[in-house]
Amino acid sequence: MIFTVIIPLILACFVPLLSKIKEKIHTGIFVFFIPFIIFLYFIQFIGSDFSPIAKTYKWIPSLGINLNFYLDGLSLLFVLLISGIGALVVLYSIYYLDKTERLGHFYVYLLMFMAAMLGVVLSDNVFVLYTFWELTSISSFLLIGYWHFNERSRYGALKSMLITIFGGLSMFGGFVLLSVVTGTTSIQSMIEQKDVILNSTYLPLILGFILLGAFTKSAQFPFHIWLPDAMEAPTPVSAYLHSATMVKAGLFLVARFSPIFSSYEWFFIIVSLAGIVTLCWGSYMAVRQTDLKAILAFSTISQLGMIMAMLGFGTKVAVFAAVFHILNHATFKGSLFMVAGIVDHETGTRDIRKLGGLVTFMPITATLALFGTFSMAGIPLPFLNGFYSKELFFESSLDLEGATTFASVLAQVIPYLAVFGSIFTFVYSIYLLFGTFAGKKHLDLLPKKPHEAPIGMLLSPFILVLGVVLIGLFPNLVNGTFLAHAAEAIKGAEIDQHIAFWHGFNTPLKMTLIVVGLGFLLVLTRKKWAGAYRVLPGKLSLNKLYDYILEKLDIVSQKVTQSYMTGSLRLYVAIILGVTLVVTFIVMLVTDGFNIQFDNLADVTIIEVSVVAIMIVAALATILAKNNVSAILILGVVGYGVAILFVLYRAPDLALTQLVIETVTVVLFLLCFRHMPKLRKRNETSGTKIVNIVISVGFGALMTLIGISAHSSKWFESISNYFIETSLKLGGGHNIVNVILVDMRGFDTLFEITVLGIAALAIFSLIKLKRGAK
Amino acid sequence: MYKPNDLILRTTTSVIAFILLGFAVYLLLAGHNSPGGGFVGGLMTASAIVLMYMSYGMEAVKKILPINFRTLIPIGLLIAVSTGIGSFVFNVPFLSHTFGHFTLPILGEVELATAMLFDMGVYVTVLGVTMTIILTIANDR
Predict the structure, then answer these.
(1) How far apart are CA A764 and CA B72, in angstroms?
(2) Which of A161, A702, B27, B87 could be B41's S-S partner, Cβ–Cβ 3.0 to 4.6 Å?
(3) Given an 8 Å threshold on Cβ–Cβ distance, is B95 in contact with A750?
(4) How many angstroms separate the CA atoms of A288 and A428, rounded?
(5) Model confidence at A552, in pLDDT bands (50, 70, 90)?
């Protein structure tokens, strides 16, 4: 089973080589066999006696992350869709894409996507699933931006990337929580432990995170905005990713986890509500579009909403209908996208206002479109599969009940919303068909003279329409052997659903008749009520919100950064000292660190007091000095004062070094200041001055307090006794300081002289290598 | 052209420089047992040389002391590091020092410590560093 995931990835590496000979043979011909063989491999599993298969390959066993593959009915449905429609899309793309395009890139991305998608639906390990999930986001990003010289493509690619990765990351959070709660990374083991999950306090978080991932991927309201913009991709990509596979990854995720969550009330509320709102909004907005692919994009959104709602209902009928509709939608929507691509390819435009009367030029395309759109609209004819799943949808929407008030109100409202959404579905389906193929011809508006597409291009949509009709004629053919297993995997119980075209004159049929009747009325009077769009979406637009957020993020982050990264070193020092001051002070206060005691202090002599007094005066004078030479000289006074203190405290080595170093420093300062400009008066506001004074005084006070506290709280005996005792014995020297420096801690000294050496060489190169020097 | 007469400065320098150099060597050698050591010794030597530069000028001192002070930095570091590495020969950890008492022909009994060698490295480095910095900055026109 693993080879179906790995082989597309490996073969993707060879595609660039094959694309070198694309002048002779279209690269797609080689690629076509990959999904086709995978499809043939998986088709053997169809049968009424199918039972799940699990395989494990080690990846990171120490983290419990292994390539656990699990093929049950649900995965089987998806792998067949992915590989089957994948093969058809590759076939279609051979005729759609010219040999002048960058075919190597296209098929590498497509194969990468296919492998990732197969990985998503076959994974049993949540982290492996997440890995493949992100790979689908990335490859979809690459495919949407395939014509990257096009500004709209880049915009659409970025938008879909941001939204789906946002959802993907939150889903990852949900997975981490799940694996922490259950202690396993396998989805099947999680399903077995569903009581643990349902009793966990993290349950709302887990559900929210995972659903966020599913909703963004499946373009549910309000995250649907990326899908219409993703229509900038080449049409085979739209047909494959944005109708049949990737957008269903979210549905797959909800279906996969619904055995765990289905008994949780909020799962029903959130998923059904999101689905039904998406259904209504998507179908309502689709009528407004003028671009063929935009209509199809909003139609995809609304159909995904419908399936999502059914998964939310969670009843046996609903789950079965959801699975059935996933299959049906993939067939008719795939074919419709391909039809839209053909129209675009043969007339040069996708604008429905310019199209019309194409039936005389492209009769076969028109016929294919007829089946696709009628099936999408759910028109009650015995050879359209869309009708059956829509009937089941109506049926399932009728027997809902909620435990809480809110849920029961929702259950009451859902049938009406379902009918409302379906009416608009009917309207846009009919509009799509008749707007393109019937009515007046506008040949002068078309960039190309329309003609029928080549047979190879028609083959793929034909096969899909054949699927529509076959499932429509013999709905029970796929029922027991195939769909029942998938529904069983979602519901966790056996489902025996019989599909019949005529199921009595009951409520669902009445609902369908209402849909058809009102739909016709709306289609005929479309011009009269089209003004409604100026009221309801009107100026409100989620796209505008998205753009606004992105733009504001840019502006605000720039403003925030500019507010403190001013380039002024004075400000940075003030921030560093201020933050250190506040944080240290709070930490000291909270941990009760200030400890001030005045016992064990030495006596103060008059000499010490006078030296320190001189130093204080000199330090204050340094601050107030008006020119830099005097500031340095006065600072020298402080330095010599320190040397005297060293003498007083009996540190002759330090005193010697301090004296010489102070002299050298002062000399160096004087040497440098010859080149420096005079100190200038700073024009600072009194506010800044006060802040600076507060920070410096506070910092000094804090350091003093810390020093006193450190002295007051000696916890351990000093180790200096060891040095005193062993200096002569081990080091052979009477000068303890020197013995410490060169013997006991010679390592420090070694690097201190290295620092000096580096400093000297740095100064040398700084001065000798300045600009203009040879 | 008017040239200041710095006879007194030059005469005193020729005396003081030797005293300073001698004191510097004393600081270096006595460091192990009395205040002093390589660091102060190096600084003191440097100040003696700087004094010579100040009174006799660049050309004269360059003739007397034809040393490129920059090369003293790696030499000093090399001495210090090799005293550390030398301890490997005796199969002891890096920078292990030892000492012993020896009777030398003229000086009589003397205590010799390997730490002294390390201090020599410090001395040479500090001398090189100080002279490099001061000369580089002073020559910068």
Answers:
(1) 14
(2) B27
(3) yes
(4) 8
(5) very high
The angle that helices A746-768 and B114-139 make with each other, rounded to 10 degrees, is 20
B20 touches chain A (CB under 8 A): no
Question: How many beta carbons lie within 10 A of that of residue A620, not counting itself?
Answer: 11
Collapse the DSSP code of A49 into the 3-class scheme (helix H, G, I; strand E, B; otherwise coil) and give the result: coil
What are the structure tokens assigned to A169, written together?
Answer: 């990351």
Q: Do B43 and A763 touch (CB under 8 A)?
A: no
**Residue numbers of chain B with a pLDDT score lower than 50:** none
Question: What is the tens place of the pLDDT at every residue in A224-269?
Answer: 889 888 888 888 888 888 777 888 899 999 999 888 888 888 888 8
Min Cα–Cα distance to chain A from B104, Å: 18
Return the C-alpha torsion angle A373, A377, A382, A385, nearest 10: 80
**Per the structure block, which two tokens stand in for A195?**
């009581």
Q: How many residues does chain A have?
A: 774
Query: Cis omega (within 30 of 0) on the bond before A454?
Result: no
Would you tell me which residues 62-121 of chain B have a C-beta closer than 8 angstroms to some C-beta of chain A? 70, 73-74, 76-77, 80-81, 84, 94-95, 97-99, 111, 113, 115, 118-119, 121
Interface test with B, best of A667, A739, A745, A753 (most B CBs within 10 A): A753
Residue ranges of E strands in B67-107: 99-104
Q: Are B76 and B123 in contact (CB under 8 A)?
A: yes
Over residues A125-134, the pLDDT tens digits come to: 899 999 999 9
Inter-chain contact B122–A660, Cβ cutoff 8 Å?
no
Query: Is A306 within 8 Å of A421 (Cβ atoms)?
Result: yes
State in Å, rounded, how far the first CA of chain B is from the last one: 22
What ipTM does the predicted assembly reach? 0.91
